[in-house]
């Protein structure tokens, strides 16, 4: 079917946009979506929906302090959001300013260091390339002077609690500027409990970019081009997926980022390729999933590429019904909100 962005719109009362996480990581709600059947549960009920031999695949990326405030050499104020750190001296970012800086412009950030904007980059030229002119490196300066990049729909500045709660308990590899939020619901006690039940866990890394929040600027979804993100799948994870498949277990992606990485590296037989790569995969209704059997995810923005992805996974009509139910029943939406467990639709 030929779908437009408006086909993925829905009314969302602002009060349902979660501004803070649940008091406990596992204290959020969980909507189990299995075709027309919708079960209202707590996230703490998740172990009862899994069985020995299942495999949970987590994204172990770590959110870096990617937001900076500063001035152009002409004195104008700027806000920088890193998209990715390319290497010690180079990064790609978004810039908010009254006037976009021109190539060659110097920017003083956090009253601490200077970068040069060397030009525009990205599919639509909507990102900026930065060169660091100080003797330090972007990784060190980010940790020392950057601010935690909470999503634009969270209205308070990053607080002390956000430093912990906007990070998964298993975050290891620094590089993301947005959290893989489905993983925020897991704590160490639940992970230990799941492993004790014979449920396997594996990890990959996909560094979520700031482009994940950029609105779609097309009418027909077929005209949209995704931003590219880096990912890596280690051999141990590929081996765990192959073993799960061979034993008849289910591969469960924890979050859309894990799913996008697995499907980008997926083979026709459901196994995955190892190593590092870039993905700009855009999953919409009609996509045939190769690797992932079930998906744990949060509730996504209207008209977003992630809403299109979950509609492809569970079925367009199924997701429409689930979101209508979630709004009516007061589920909390987006990064700090509640979760869903989605069963894969057989329809293509």
Average of pLDDT: 94
Query: What would you call the structural class?
Result: alpha/beta
Per DSSP, what share of the residues sits in E-state strands of 2 or more residues?
25-35%
Work out the number of β strands.
17
Measured between the Cα atoms of the first and last residue, the distance is: 11 Å
Radius of gyration: 20 Å
Task: Walk me through the structure.
The protein contains 7 helices and 17 strands. By secondary structure, the protein is an alpha/beta fold. A 9-stranded mixed sheet has the order 2-1-17-16-14-3-12-13-15, with helices on one face. Strands 5-6-7-10-9-8 form a 6-stranded antiparallel barrel. The mean pLDDT is 94.
What's this entry about, in short?
This protein is of the alpha/beta class.
Features:
single chain, 348 residues, Thrombin, subunit H, 9-stranded mixed sheet, 6-stranded antiparallel barrel, 7 helices, 17 strands
Topology:
Elements: E1 29-34, E2 37-42, E3 55-59, E4 61-63, E5 67-72, E6 77-87, E7 90-97, E8 106-109, E9 113-121, E10 127-132, H1 138-145, H2 160-165, E11 173-176, H3 188-196, E12 200-206, E13 229-233, H4 235-246, E14 251-254, H5 256-264, E15 275-279, E16 294-298, H6 305-314, H7 316-328, E17 339-343
Parallel strand pairs: 1-17, 3-12, 3-14, 4-11, 14-16
Antiparallel strand pairs: 1-2, 5-6, 5-8, 6-7, 7-10, 8-9, 9-10, 12-13, 13-15, 16-17
